[in-house]
Amino acid sequence: MGQSLGNYNPVHKTPRRSLTNKRQLSAACNFVDLLGPGRVDLNRASEEELMTLHGVDRSLARDIVAYRTRIGGFRKVEDLALVTGVGAARMAQIQSEVFVGEPGSAPNLLSLDLLSCTRVDINRASLGQIQRLAGVTEEVAQGILFHRTTQGPFWRAEELGNIKGVDPALLARLLPQITVGRPRPAPTYSDLRREGLGRPNAATSFHSLREMDMGFLQGSIVPVRPLSQPFSGVHNGRPVLRVASWNLREFGTEKAQNPGVREVICRTLLENGIQLLAVQEVLQEEALEKVCLELEKPSTAGVREWPVDRGTWRYVLMDAPQGEETQEVERVAFLWDCSSGLELLQAVTMETQTEGVSGPHSQPLLGSFKMGDLEFSLINLHLRSDSTARNRQPAEASLDLLKLEPLKPFLQDLFEKALLTLGHLGLSPDASEFAVLREQQLEPLVPADCSTELTRRGGEGEGSLQNIWASHTARDSYTGRWGVIRLGLSNPWIPDGWSWGGIVSTHCPVWVELYMK
């Protein structure tokens, strides 16, 4: 699926516990919600009962039942908003009319385990909460957290017996104090306005969760991402091509082994109709292979249940520098769906760095593509400032920011071509450092006031650092539609410090749309 590249120089052209008799309560026990007098139980209601709710017709009731079946029952009322057709406005209208009971069983106070209100869930507890358990030392608490992070969530309370320092006597003392909850598949479409809490713990690894670690059979991961309507590929009655750029941030084999990461990447491509993706910060070729394989033979339910054809995906990655083939070397790549008719004509490395001149994280990659009668070229860039590269303070490096001058000969050579220069560009598009691009009549398609960044907890970050610049010829085919993808970038199986539900990258994918001539 991968290809090797040559070099290009404009002068020398080559071409995410079920309880049988007990119900677990949260610390904020609400008996009104459990009994739900006069309200509809979302986990037991029939289509007809759901149709008694404000604004719910037969079609929506059917969708609610289908979604409930797919996820194994609602866990909280707010999950209803994830059903296509409900949304925030309708959710606000019917929230007081519904409650969530135990899936498949009527709520019964006689069956409630009231002690569970004070028990500690070892799959969610913080270090301090675990240390407050009777008999637990700081060393044992740290061992529990380390096991949970590196081996995945606990499935039985008895598994604590595997932790160093937990002997049979301590385990027997702990069992009445704890509970084991499966890590809740938090909605992929999470609140994107939450603020981040800083850098994840260094012990966290994307390798922490693999299919075998989670106790699932291969390919049986519970789907938590709502199915969306596939993009038609047509705008104003004309076929279009969507081209995107995404900095996947340290995208190596270890990260790609996490099923949540693969599901987010694949579903983002499919849901948004992206047929060609420029990728930055690729550390290992195998990571791209895993994405292509997931699209071809999906192991995650979210990809496997995609309602239409997933296409046939290929990639091209620039070669690692000589002598560094087995190391994690940051590179850029293209990923595309060849079943759509998109054809790679040529991909070559652009030699831009010279001694004493600051340049990109990695050498740019030039790709020439054809789809129907539309021929175009892409320059995939990952740029940064010298202050990042040399650990300088911003004030000390104010004159060292992005030097794009080495790209000028290539831009001149491609002046009459339909050209998109895209990637992680490191600065807002209105920065003076992009004068070289403007001189060649390239214009940014993503506005400078549009943030393309996320905090580590999925909140909106600062800066418009990802962009797609189009030449005057490429703008002739531009539909005028662009997007910054913020939804669907988190997954319950992606680690986030000592917790779960992290995001794939702090950088958002950006896309533009071209008419096919």
Automatic annotation (TrEMBL):
Coiled-coil segments on the chain, per record: none
Matches recorded under InterPro entries: Endo/Exo/Phosphatase_dom_1, Endo/exonu/phosph_ase_sf, RuvA_2-like
Name recorded for this polypeptide: EEPD1 protein
Organism annotation: Polyodon spathula
Gene name as annotated: Eepd1_1
